[in-house]
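Retry 2 of 3 after timeout on previous attempt. Resubmitting structure tokens to design endpoint.
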């Protein structure tokens, strides 16, 4: 039984990963401050990754799944604290690519500040660099928007709420802005493939091979409740993020590397249905934003 350390383990991706690898017969340890409920069956290492002292010095992990590294200090402090390990997998982000870059982004594309992602993106760049300086054969995965069960970010859940309430959907401009997604289960299955097969490429863009317009994405979200949206197009100078879940920024990742080792991803239709089913029983776990209130204030709501 392989010993896996998951950083985090109580929110969305890290929580899903902890459950997934438990179900895959791994011995799963989670590192967090124990301020939220833990996944049943994990072994908790309670602590802050920046102040671990000797807690990990005598421990060996076959795999470290670092899902909560957001800057260089996150990497450095954990690396200095852990005793020994086999593989190291870090979840980075597509936010490392600047918005002005040539798309679809390749793994070798320039990494630089992105005006939409700000410190989040530059922090991930610093974390990647710090990791590769210390562990040359570490694996780095750069996903686009992640979705699926346990998602606490108000993205697909916002559209689900609109569908459930039979609301009109206020669509930015003509709705043709493109988005790219990756199901959290696909991310975990890809990590498992990496653990088992140790592929030669160590930095991978990951995601569904196809992008989708926001209009089509919203339509698929409504279809999870057997409904069809009525759209109201918003062409005003209203800031998109005040009433919609995504920045006014489209991008695409080239995922050919991923496809060499993990070619079959979950369809968006099936993935959204799974997300909707989870949401119906876990609505209180999502951090909702006042998109509806903003629309009402602006006189757009209905």
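Retry 2 succeeded. Sequence:
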């Amino acid at each position: 039984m392989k010993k896996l350390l998951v950083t985090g383990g109580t929110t969305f991706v890290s929580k899903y990963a902890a459950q997934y690898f438990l179900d895959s017969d791994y011995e799963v340890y989670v590192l967090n401050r124990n301020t939220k409920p833990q996944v049943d069956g994990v072994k908790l290492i309670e602590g802050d990754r920046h102040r671990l002292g000797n807690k990990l010095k005598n421990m060996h992990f076959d795999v470290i799944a670092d899902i909560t590294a957001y800057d260089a200090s996150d990497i450095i402090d954990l690396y200095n604290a852990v005793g020994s390990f086999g593989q190291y997998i870090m979840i980075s982000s597509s936010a490392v690519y600047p918005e002005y870059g040539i798309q679809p982004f390749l793994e070798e594309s320039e990494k630089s500040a992105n005006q939409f992602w700000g410190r989040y993106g530059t922090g991930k760049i610093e974390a990647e660099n710090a990791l590769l300086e210390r562990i040359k054969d570490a694996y780095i995965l750069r996903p686009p928007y992640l979705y699926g069960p346990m998602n606490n970010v108000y993205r697909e859940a916002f559209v689900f709420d609109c569908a459930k309430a039979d609301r009109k959907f206020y669509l930015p401009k003509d709705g043709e802005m493109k988005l790219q997604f990756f199901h959290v289960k696909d991310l975990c299955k890809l990590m498992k493939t990496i653990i088992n097969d140790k592929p030669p490429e160590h930095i991978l863009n990951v995601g569904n091979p196809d992008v989708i317009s926001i209009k089509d994405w919203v339509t698929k979200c409504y279809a999870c409740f057997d409904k069809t949206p009525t759209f109201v197009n918003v062409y005003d100078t209203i800031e998109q993020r005040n009433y919609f879940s995504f920045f006014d920024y489209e991008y695409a990742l080239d995922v050919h590397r991923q496809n060499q080792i993990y070619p079959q991803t979950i369809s968006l239709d099936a993935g959204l249905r799974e997300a909707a089913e989870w949401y119906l029983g876990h609505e209180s776990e999502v951090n909702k934003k006042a998109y509806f209130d903003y629309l009402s204030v602006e006189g757009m709501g209905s």
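Attempt log closed. The longest strand covers residues 84-91.
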